[in-house]
Amino acid sequence: MVVVDDEPLVRSGLRAILGSATDIGVVADCGGAEAVMTVARHRPEVVLLDIRMPDVDGLTVLTGLAAMTPPPAVAMLTTFDAGEYVDRALRAGAAGFLMKNASPEQLLHAVRVLAGGGKVLAPEAAGPVIGAYLTSAPADDAARLVSALTERERHVLALVGRGMSNRAIAGRLHLAHGTVKDHVSALLAKLGGINRVQAAVIAERAGMLDPSPGARR
User: Once rounded to an integer, what is the mean pLDDT over residues 190-195?
Assistant: First the structure.
């Protein structure tokens, strides 16, 4: 994987955390100006990309990475005040959002999910990410989209909207992990082949994030 951030100290810290795992290898780190060239040279499966950098911003880098064949899975490193970038990042193909102050455990888990083809949305980032997207994205008929889902799929979608992983959802709903994975795949397809972050936005728009949505069976 490759780490892209304008601050060398941040890059060093991320490399130290990621390097502590035997199943994760960081092949390079760099600032925004060198990012596309560095990723093209190393062809990593995963890129952690700062969403806001002074030399070349993360959205410009993301556009360049998305044009690669095949493109890497890119998770944007964000802060609570970066909401104005969220809509463009989602539309440019970001595979998720991680807080820059994520714990080592959250970071390692997220990278493994990304490497496996999944999407990530840190629970701490769910509110700011969804809120920013709602204020900037065109409105659509979320209720109509959700109505095509089964009752179980709607319960699962509500928990996806809260930033929960498949494993966490399985524990909440007392289902097998594989069953939840199947439900998530099905509902994402029914919602138009979207990713988990976009599904979370639809859940918010449809009013599904009221307290304790997972308590209903």
Answer: 77
